[in-house]
């Protein structure tokens, strides 16, 4: 166990180096596949990589080859046409035999290698060339990245637009949820007013247990909270998000400090006019283990 723990710590400390190494290896594989061609001989009869001599198409006196003359609308004899056809067929077969090593890898191995990359690295890899774009857009790679960055839950989910799109929208809703706590820390009532959807069905339950329903009542409750309390910098832990087409909810544990002031919180968002709005917030005091045991006994 100690060896496994030490190994995990060492891998975490060298994660940037591992990411850079993987990107470099994948890029070199792509470059190698592009330049991987068997050597051709020149007109003097130099041996090819297969050990045989190859005769190149003859050149005319004006400096153009017979194949170029064909492209320019000229004609060639049967022998020349056969040579050109054979040459083209050979080039095509060489391109097929020179397939990328990335394409020859087992898909599970490629996915495992890409799972070491973080979100920016995977995006940069997809912009290198078409082969890397295909590998970096693999749905399994984005699913692995989602589970690594967000949660192991939703393993059986099947996002409508794929895991890459689901990762992006989850990342966006996480950013919006972080903004909520920044507003509380700054005690900005104008920002909180813009954050909520102006509707009569929005609801807010503060840690006191009091329920406020409707946009005006909800904003007034935050005004009272900002007037009574100092700015609070919550420590947010165990964040879980679930995103649907036009709705998302986020659950989390929050702490004023790690020993006191622990809360369970839930935020529900709706997507309107190109952005996410908060429509429901629920906060409740997190029960200590002793309190949970007492409730079970009394129940």
Provide key terms for this protein.
single chain; 299 residues; alpha+beta; 6-stranded mixed beta sheet; 13 helices; 15% strand; elongated
What is the succession of H and E elements? HHHHHHHHHHHEEHEEEEH
Secondary-structure class: alpha+beta
Instruction: Characterize the overall form.
Output: elongated
Q: Estimate what percentage of residues fall within beta strands.
A: 15-25%
| N-to-C span | 41 Å
Mean pLDDT: 74
**Main sheet attributes: strand count, strand direction, barrel closure:** 6 strands, mixed
Radius of gyration in whole Å, from Cα? 31 Å
DSSP summary, beta strand count? 6
Tally of contiguous helical segments:
13
Extract low-pLDDT stretches.
Answer: 39-76, 94-99, 290-299
Specify the helix fraction band.
40-55%
> In which order are the strands of the major sheet placed?
2-1-6-5-4-3
Explain what this protein looks like in three dimensions.
This protein has 299 residues and is α+β, with helices and mostly antiparallel strands. 51% of the residues lie in helices and 15% in strands. The chain has 13 helices and six strands. A hairpin with a 6-residue loop joins strand 4 and strand 5. Helix 7 packs antiparallel against helix 8. The C terminus is likely disordered.
Topology, pairings included?
Layout: H1 2-13, H2 15-35, H3 66-71, H4 78-97, H5 101-104, H6 107-114, H7 119-126, H8 130-136, H9 139-149, H10 162-186, H11 189-195, E1 203-205, E2 211-213, H12 215-228, E3 235-243, E4 247-255, E5 262-272, E6 275-285, H13 289-298
Parallel strand pairs: 1-6
Antiparallel strand pairs: 1-2, 3-4, 4-5, 5-6
Helix pairs in contact: 7-8, 9-10
């Amino acid at each position: 166990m100690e060896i496994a723990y030490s190994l995990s710590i060492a891998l975490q400390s060298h994660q940037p180096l591992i990411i850079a190494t993987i990107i470099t290896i994948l890029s070199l594989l792509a470059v190698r596949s592009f330049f991987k061609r068997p050597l051709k001989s020149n007109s003097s009869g130099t041996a090819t990589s297969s050990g045989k001599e190859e005769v190149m198409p003859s050149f005319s006196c004006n400096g153009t080859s017979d194949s170029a003359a064909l492209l320019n609308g000229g004609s060639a004899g049967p022998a020349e046409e056969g040579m050109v056809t054979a040459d083209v067929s050979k080039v095509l077969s060489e391109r097929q035999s020179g397939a990328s090593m990335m394409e020859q890898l087992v898909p599970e191995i490629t996915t495992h290698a890409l799972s070491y990359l973080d979100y920016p690295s995977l995006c940069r890899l997809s912009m290198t060339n078409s082969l890397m774009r295909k590998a970096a857009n693999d749905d399994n790679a984005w699913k692995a990245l989602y589970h690594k960055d967000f949660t192991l839950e939703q393993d059986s989910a099947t996002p409508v637009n794929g895991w890459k799109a689901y990762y992006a929208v989850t990342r966006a809703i996480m950013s919006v949820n972080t903004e909520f706590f920044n507003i509380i820390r700054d005690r900005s009532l104008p920002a909180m007013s813009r954050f909520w959807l102006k509707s009569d069905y929005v609801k807010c339950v503060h840690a006191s247990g009091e329920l406020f329903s409707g946009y005006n009542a909800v904003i007034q409750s935050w005004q009272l909270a900002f007037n009574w309390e100092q700015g609070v910098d919550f420590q947010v832990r165990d964040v879980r998000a679930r995103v649907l087409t036009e709705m998302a909810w986020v659950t989390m544990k929050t702490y004023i400090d790690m020993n006191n002031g622990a809360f369970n919180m839930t935020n529900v968002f709706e997507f309107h006019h190109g952005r996410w709005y908060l429509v429901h917030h629920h906060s409740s005091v997190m029960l200590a283990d002793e309190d949970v045991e007492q409730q079970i006994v009394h129940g």
